[in-house]
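::Encoded backbone::
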Amino acid sequence: MERINKVLARSTGFSRRDIDRLIDEGAVEIDGKTILSKGCRINVNSKVKINQKIITLKRDNELNSIYLFHKPRGCLVTKSDPKNRKTIYDFLKKNHNDLLSVGRLDYNTEGLLLLTNNGELKRKLELPSSNLERVYKVKVQGTVDNKIIQKLALGYRINNFKYKPIKAYITHNTKTYTWLMMTLTEGKNREIRNIFESLNLTVTRLIRVSYGKYKLGNLPKGIVKNIKL
């Protein structure tokens, strides 16, 4: 038997603090009864619902996997979409439907997306304090010069918001477009796109090639690969 917030945190995308809050709100049911005690202990055979949604509980020895997924363009990182657009789960086998994404990539961003069956590992990999590098290949319509590269290295500012320093270098350019490699240490929403939009430049391709120690490599689009921890 283990504390309820520990079991649910590793089985969902919620933190232990989130679980405690949900218990206070009366949103957690164990074996058909609403739980109000945060000190409650359960086992993995208990039947649990959060906000009326059935939760599959997981043992520690089941939580030992990271999955690398090559996300194509034109799909969402979500379980379902009211507009019926394609999601990453359309590419995953049925036995992978319970995998949690480590962060997100927006609809038209492609490349490496980490998935895991461990809610606590998911949060650890997402935390800014983990300081994990995310490396992207970026194609920009227009010319990117060294002045822009220097601004990125100092921490680019848009209005009153300042991003953390970004390491960037140009790999190829022409009169009409520029390819860059960019390394970020935070996962702000649309960070790269927002920066170039503020410079009146348009990102036409955005491909994540690594996240921390994990690399996209030659993994084909739409394919998921299991890596044991």
